[in-house]
Amino acid sequence: MRRFLRPGHDPVRERLKRDLFQFNKTVEHGFPHQPSALGYSPFLRLMAIGTRSGAIKLYGAPGVEFMGLHEENNTVMQIHFIPDQCQLVTLLDDNSLHLWSLKQHGGGSELREENRFTLKGPPGSPPSATQVTAVLAHSSREVLYLGTESGNIFVVELPSFQVLEDRTITPEAVLQRIPEDNCNRRSCELVEALQEHPKNPDQILIGYSRALIVLWDLQNNKAIHHFLGSQQLENLYWQRDGSKFISCHYDGSYTQWPVSSDSRQSEPLENTVPYGPFPCKAISKIYWQTTKNGLPYIIFQGGMPRASYGDRHSISVIHGSQQTAFDFTSRVIDFFIIFSSDPAAEFDDPSALVVLAEEELVVIDLKSAGWPAVHPPYLASLHCSAITCSHHVSNIPLKLWERIISAGSKQNIHYSSMPWPIDGGTNIAPDPPQRDLLLTGHEDGTVRFWDASGVCLHLLYKLSTVRVFLTDADPNDNMNTLGEDEWPPLRKVGTFDPYSDDPRLGIQKIYLCKYSGYLAVAGTAGQVLVMELNDEDAEHVVDHAEADLLQDQEGYRWKGHEKLKTRDGPVRFEAGFQPFVLVQCQPPAVVTSLALHSEWKLVAFGTSHGFGLFDHQQKRLVFVKCTLHPSDQLALEGPLSRVKSLKKSLRQSFRRMRRSRVSSRKRRGGGGNASEVQEANAKFDQDALQEMELAPVQRKIEARSAEDSFTGFVRTLYFADTFLRDSSRHCPSLWAGTNGGTVYAFCLRVPPAERRMDEPVRAEQAKEIQLMHRAPVVGILVLDGRSTPLPEPLEVAHDLSKSPDMQGSHQLLVVSEEQFKVFTLPKVSSKLKLKLTALEGCRVRKVTVANFGSCKTDDYSENDLAVLTNLGDIQIISLPFLKLQIRYPCIRKEDVSGIASCVFTKYGQGFYLISPSEFERFSLSTKWLVEPRCIVDMPEVTSNNHVHNKPGTENAARKSSPSDGGEDERKSGRLMEHALLNDEKVLKEIQSTLEGGR
Amino acid sequence: EFRRFSLERSKPGKFEEFYGLLQHVHKIPNVDVLVGYTDIHGDLLPINNDDNYHKAVSTANPLLRIFIQRKEDADYSAFGTDTMTRKKNVLSNVLRPDNHKKKPHIVISMPQDFRPVSSIIDVDILPETHRRVRLYKYGTDKPLGFYIRDGSSVRVTPHGLEKVPGIFISRLVPGGLAQSTGLLAVNDEVLEVNGIEVSGKSLDQVTDMMIANSRNLIITVRPANQRNNVVRNSRTSGSSGQSTESSLPSSAPNILGHLQAEEESDEEDIIIEDSGEPQHIPKAAPTSGSIESLSQIELLHESTQNGFLPSGQTSLNHSAGSISMECEVPEPGPKSLEEDGTIITL
């Protein structure tokens, strides 16, 4: 009965667990999925982005970010900062308004929802009466003006959201002062724009959809002027001095209107269709910015000729004779201009154009010649080509770090050198504990190197494997080709390019050795590239070898994709990681596992057919092993990706269907009221339920057998120096685990360094273990005599790890999807096991060894297994006794792609995709925690009169901004210094080996 | 005394002919004998009619090992599962022959001659409305052969009757283990898998649990047809619903232990050392240190439950149409083994 007793509750261990483990989701990296609204506060120098799922995110200086989530998860339609306040108002698509505040709390600032409000009309009125279409946050900071579909403008007090009914501006009141002959009641339907006079807060400009524009006096409640356009109105913009304003229209025209005190009805100064004369698309938003030299900047969205360029997402900038239409690869959500916000300044002097497109943020420097883009320090579009895999490397040596940065800086020369213009708030987070790299592989054959040390995920360097291969697309095809007399003057900007030329280029596996700078990258068509870091451009021939993984099998025909064609002759590579050898697997199936041993100069790779070992020093294939079961036709014939992609496309089309249904329901101005929508919702759910009952999902219950499909699929490869044959001599070994629960171990003979080029590397199969439960093997690990996992290659050589204990007996840990098993070595007998699936019904998806340090004492740390299951739970399991320590729910189990994308770090952190463009970062450790900590100071406001008050506060904000930048530089400098001082000796040694190795 | 000869696998003929052949081969034309064979799991099973004779021939892989005993010396308990571990008793019985002169003409095997494929267990601790079924997957090539689905069942709760989600058997594959037992039926509600309650678990989770336990699957069901339940006197037949619910948790830990103890034996993995030579070394891997490589004899004794093949048999010749057979006639007392090269083709 002993074995049934629960392990005793050990209070000492329980306390230690509290010091070691803690689960936090700390920050979201990347670009928000489905952004729907943009806001900017020149006062706080913060930008706000709202999304269709109801999230609101604020960004300032790098490291300054806040996030909030509307409970309703409804689309954020508009965001308005309250002038000169740490507050903002959001409008959702359910017509609700939400007031958010940045409040200081415990040393940092926090974003909190303060209040919410939905405009209610009189009983019996149609919903359009209160459907908010335009919001004006008045500079008095006391009221909001809400323009509605009905043409009424309601006045709401802040922060209480109390409707001031006596101040409502009704269409009737507006029409009183306007001659009947050119206006009627219908002219005042749907308020399209509300703008406050830049100099006189008592006057607001009201733009109605039917082109009637009225300058309204708030004090006397009367129209001072009215302006009548000929085309449907889209938006309005005041010029800085308040003497003129611009209206833009549905037909692609804009009109400049003078505001003079003498005449009550004005004629336009200028009416232009910039991309005429043929019919044009609407100009939906326009800025008119004055400059010292007199030539204004006219910046507007849309207006392209309807027939030829109607599908473009463009923003045009006109400055004198210069004109460029920035052409975005995805829909433009909104944009704003950063300009001098000091009211005392005479001119706008715009410095930057900030554009939120559906898939990326683009910032254009308007001060430098040629209007180059600014490299954003955050909000990177992770998905500019779809992410296919990721790989995390902790604690990068400084030398390698600097070399990668230097390679990357050569790629970024076309970016502007302008400091990041959105720089509000102060980052008060401690320096990141170490330098971490996150490598993402993409569908287009690129690998992106991200600085994942801190809160801002920042692109350091981009590697492309495309040059090695011959593809249809010309790699020299420049995105920014601009013909001399091309009209309209379109210029592509941004990096989002979801269209891959060739899906075979997709990166599937990445392995970087941080000590040697060797990088192995493997892809969809069985290509394995080994690369070396070179600080200079170079032109050389990439050696080519084939690995026939079916060599002793006959009569099989591969029906999947062909291998990629390679370029003959020397290829020019830019500074950075340059491939020197290509191993091509045959059949060219997707590479499913990869391991690199930089000390032995060996690379191992596996597909659904088998695995092989390549000596990249001698450029010789050492051996291949076929793991395919003869009857496994499915694995033989086609790529797994085909099955997957079919599934994926099905899933996506379903998602699209669902989305379109949702969006049609949510379309603005739809006639249905809330209860109808709810009813429709309920009916939809019921239908879905019925559908489910009609066709019940059933699952087959069957034991696994050797004949199942994809049993030969190689899931994991592992190099270890351990006791494979006998307990007296250890030797290099390669371990491979398959989908069918088989583990192969090969004994390797690697010649000593002095004869490394002369003698061949030899390999001999030493063991084959068949797990009886036949579940896929997802992890293999050897523990040394002290039960510590063996160190990484070169780790000991660089004195960064204790030498492994070769005295005590080694143990082999095999992790399958269903259980964990420890075996003795060299004689394989099972020692311990932990069953997961049989007891809990969950399966291992990801597993890594992580080192956990105690937050109480610096000298205690231990190694545990961090495990992610198919249910999205994270479990920590102790080594070597395989005891479950703790369990945290992390990812929704329905989020299959999130679970598949998860990557753990060596120090108990992790990343997973919450959307195609965003990584969620989490931490399991009490010690290593990277999360935003920042503060937004509210400059003191003493007076409500904003005209007098404004200069002071704006100056303060502006003054603080350059010093912020300086502090950042200092900070990063400090970080480097700190790292240097900490392990100078170590780093010197690394440096010397790196140089010696070259 | 050994004889080795070959048989046409596709045309094994009738049991009488085979019996005659054996008597001929061993030159014992008028001696009544009991014929037995070791099946692929190492169990000693009888050959006494056409059916089990055909079964024996068809499962030969490729060797069929036949044991022949003089009928007057024979003991029927020698056959069946675990026979080899009971060898000692067999021998003592053999040494103390009983009077078995009168035999019925048609010999029906004893219960222990059959390997179990399923059983109802824990009847004493389960409520009457539930049934706990154990499926013995090892030892047969039959698929488990059933499907499960989501569904809902009505439970008695403190708030009255409530519909709760449950897992149900949706389909039985004809000829599968589940169907052939007759203990499981479509629409039976699955309550537990190897002692672990499935309530609150998704269909996929339960599927994974069943597959992970497939080598020794124990499922507790509430049969859709409640008329064939085991009726015990202590309970009135009216009690169901609530009472059954409450009785489950108390018994669960008990069962769990029981189940775990039983499944230990069928979990061993296989290790092949140095693939250069075809040297399978199946290795039971107990926690008490390592066992040296096993001889073939030991294997026969050991492998009754482990479910893997002794290496000698798998690596021998694979002549397509015929099988070769090894016959052994155990004789009381110490004996010298010699091999006779006679090969007869039918």
Automatic annotation (TrEMBL), chain A:
The UniProt record lists the keyword Cell cycle: yes
Highest taxon, organism lineage: Eukaryota
WD-type repeats, residues: 69-103, 433-451
Key words of the record: Cell cycle, Cell division, Cytoplasm, Exocytosis, Phosphoprotein, Repeat, WD repeat
Biased composition (Basic residues): 655-669
Ranges for region Disordered: 655-679, 942-975
Protein name: LLGL scribble cell polarity complex component 2
Organism, scientific name: Hylia prasina (green hylia)
Chain's gene name: Llgl2
From TrEMBL, chain B:
Domain of life, source organism: Eukaryota
Cell compartment(s), UniProt: Cell junction, Tight junction; Cell membrane; Cytoplasm
Residue span of region Disordered: 228-253, 327-346
Segments of skewed composition (Low complexity): 234-251
Annotated Gene Ontology cellular component terms: apical plasma membrane; bicellular tight junction; cell cortex; nucleus
Protein name according to UniProt: PAR6B protein
Domain PB1: from-to ranges: 1-71
GO BP term (any one): cell division
CDD domains: PB1_Par6 (cd06403), PDZ_Par6-like (cd06718)
InterPro entries, per the entry: PAR6_homolog, PB1-like, PB1_dom, PB1_Par6, PDZ, PDZ_sf
UniProt xrefs under PROSITE patterns: PB1, PDZ
Family that this chain belongs to: Belongs to the PAR6 family.
Alphabetical keyword list: Cell cycle, Cell division, Cell junction, Cell membrane, Cytoplasm, Membrane, Tight junction
Domain PDZ span(s) in chain numbering: 132-225
Pfam families on file: PB1, PDZ
